[in-house]
Design a protein that fits this description.
This protein has about 325 residues and is of the alpha+beta class. The protein contains eleven helices and eleven strands. α1 packs across α2, α3 packs across α4 and α6 packs parallel to α7. The protein is elongated and about 85 Å long.
Length: about 325
C-alpha cells in the first residue's frame, strides 16, 4: 500500500491530508493504465484524486492535482458524462466517484462485447469467400507494401500470379517464394528476361495481347501486380523515392483475370516458356507440363496402333 502526503486548501485553511492508494501500483502506473482504457491524462489524475478524497470540490481537486482550475471543470464534466463521477447538490458543488467496482465491471462487459463484435467482423472478412463486398485499401508507405507482399506470399494456398515489370524487385522475397512454390502453382509473368542470379527459376512472357495490355501500355511507375488464389489482389506502383499500393482482399474479378492470363500463357507456351514449367501438380489442367505429357502419350499410342495395323495387312 502506497501513501502520498499532499497539501490542499480546505475551508480556507491549510490542512494536511494523507492520500492512500489501496493498490500496489504507483500513481503514475494508475494514470498510465487509465489512459489505456480511454481517459485523458487530466481525467486520470482527477479520477485518482477524487477516488482518494471520496468527496471534493473543484477547487480542492485543483489544489491536489495542480491542474488549471478551468480545465478541472471541463474534466469533471467529461467524467460525469462517461459515468465515472456524479455531482452532488449543494453549494459549493461537490463531486464523488460512482461505485468503482460496479463502474469497472460495466467497462469490462462493454469492452468484451465490443471485442467479440470486432473479432467476429474481422473473421467474416478473412474467411468468408462468398462475401460479395469488395473493399480496397491504400498502402502509402514502403513498409506497408512490403508487409502486405509478405503476408500474401505466406498465406497463398493454391495459385499465385505475379505480373512484374522488373523481376529483380522480387529478390528480397526469394525465401517466401520458394516456400510458396511448395504449396501453390506460381506463375511469374515478366516484361523482360530475368538476369542471371535473379529470383525467378520459372517465368513466362505472354502473347501480344498480354504483353501490350500489361507491360507496354502501362507507365514505368507500375511495378508489380499480384493475384493470389483468384481472390486477393495487390497493385504496386512507384511514387517519389518509394512505393505505394492498393490491396483488394476479395476481388470478384480475379477469377476471370486469372483464367485469361493463364490461357494466354499456356497457348503461347511453345514460344514463350523460357525455362522449366512451374511446380504444379501433374493433374492440374492449367499446367503446361501436364498438357504436353498427355499429348506425347496420345501421339505414342496412335503410332503403336498404326504399326500394328500395317503388320496385319502385310
Amino acid at each position: 500500500m502506497s501513501f502520498k502526503k499532499v497539501t490542499t486548501l480546505l475551508n480556507s485553511q491549510n490542512r494536511n491530508i494523507l492520500i492512500m492508494s489501496p493498490s500496489p501500483l504507483s500513481t503514475q502506473e494508475l494514470i498510465t493504465r487509465l489512459t489505456k482504457i480511454g481517459m485523458g491524462e487530466y481525467e486520470a489524475k482527477i479520477y485518482i484524486a477524487l477516488s482518494t478524497l471520496r468527496v471534493a470540490t473543484a477547487r480542492e481537486l485543483h489544489e491536489v492535482t495542480r491542474i488549471p482550475r478551468t480545465r478541472v471543470y471541463d474534466t469533471l464534466s467529461s467524467l460525469i458524462q462517461e459515468g465515472y463521477v456524479v455531482l452532488l447538490s449543494g453549494r459549493p458543488a461537490r463531486y464523488h466517484v460512482t461505485d468503482i467496482t460496479a463502474t469497472f465491471e460495466r467497462i469490462r462487459r462493454q469492452t468484451l462485447t465490443e471485442l467479440e463484435e470486432l473479432g467476429s467482423g474481422l473473421a467474416t472478412l478473412a474467411h468468408d469467400p462468398e462475401n460479395p463486398s469488395m473493399r480496397a485499401y491504400e498502402l502509402h508507405t514502403t513498409y506497408a507494401v512490403t508487409h502486405q507482399i509478405q503476408m500474401i506470399l505466406g498465406r497463398v494456398k493454391n495459385e499465385l500470379i505475379l505480373l512484374c515489370r522488373d523481376p529483380s524487385l522480387l529478390n528480397e522475397y526469394t525465401p517466401l517464394l520458394t516456400a510458396a512454390r511448395k504449396r501453390a502453382a506460381v506463375y511469374l509473368v515478366t516484361g523482360r528476361h530475368p538476369a542471371s542470379g535473379e529470383t525467378p527459376r520459372t517465368w513466362y512472357t505472354g502473347k501480344k495481347d498480354l504483353e501490350e495490355g500489361i507491360f507496354q501500355n502501362n507507365t514505368d511507375t507500375d511495378q508489380l501486380t499480384i493475384i493470389a488464389d483468384r481472390r486477393e489482389s495487390l497493385f504496386i506502383h512507384a511514387k517519389n523515392d518509394g512505393v505505394e499500393g492498393i490491396f483488394i482482399p476479395n476481388d470478384p474479378r480475379n477469377d476471370y483475370f486469372a483464367r485469361k492470363i493463364l490461357k494466354d500463357l499456356i497457348s503461347a507456351s511453345d514460344r514463350h516458356l523460357s525455362s522449366p514449367e512451374p511446380e504444379t501438380p501433374d493433374n492440374d489442367h492449367t499446367n503446361p507440363k501436364s498438357r504436353n505429357t498427355t499429348n506425347r502419350k496420345q501421339t505414342s499410342i496412335r503410332t503403336n496402333n498404326n504399326q500394328q495395323r500395317n503388320r496385319k495387312q502385310t
